[in-house]
Amino acid sequence: MLKLLIKIGNPLNKLILRTPVLHRLLSGTVMLMTLTGRRSGRRITTPVNYVRDGDTLTVVTYKSRRWWRNFEGGAPVTVLLRRRKLEGTAAPVIAGVEATAETLEEFYNCISPIRISPERVALLAPARVVIRVSLSADFAD
């Protein structure tokens, strides 16, 4: 079911985020992230939820997905954020479960109108990875 949602939802979200008017439906919490595969050299663009704090973006994804591994050790990334193309460097956050849980709780409470409980966060944390994107000084607001 999740694979079907991704297969249908990701292209639809990409289309919406690239439109001049409709992007407003999603762009407060969803952006497009474009990266280059380390092995394949292919450009990959995927919609992701984000939280912005100044020139730092926080993204959370499932550890079981593979695309985030391209950022290990830090890697250049392009994001389409509110229809603005920005450059930056992305890297997964390597931290203890407590730090990850705290970051996850802040993240989910920013993108969702429903508060997430610490118990739920504790269940989610082991299966998630946090990615930090540092926007280039030339592009940060």
Please provide a written account of the structure.
The protein is an alpha+beta fold. The chain has one domain (2-135): Roll (Pnp Oxidase, Chain A). 28% of the residues lie in helices and 35% in strands. The protein has three helices and six strands, in the order H-E-E-E-E-E-H-H-E. The protein has helices at 2-18, 97-111, 118-124; strands spanning 30-36, 43-53, 56-62, 75-81, 84-92, 128-135. A six-stranded antiparallel beta barrel has the order 1-2-3-6-5-4. Helix 2 (97-111) crosses helix 3. The radius of gyration is 15 Å and the shape is globular.
Mean pLDDT, to the nearest integer, reads 88
CATH architecture: Roll
Compute the CA-based radius of gyration. Answer: 15 Å
CATH-defined superfamily: Electron Transport, Fmn-binding Protein, Chain A
Strand content: 25-35%
Low-pLDDT stretches are none
Main sheet: strands, sense, barrel: 6 strands, antiparallel, barrel
What would CATH call the class? Mainly Beta
Order of helical and strand elements: HEEEEEHHE
Count up the helices.
Answer: 3
CATH T-level fold name:
Pnp Oxidase, Chain A
Report the structural category: alpha+beta
Helical amount: 25-40%
| Gross morphology | globular
In what order do the strands lie side by side in the largest sheet?
1-2-3-6-5-4
Cα(first) to Cα(last) distance is 38 Å
What is the domain total for the residues?
A: 1
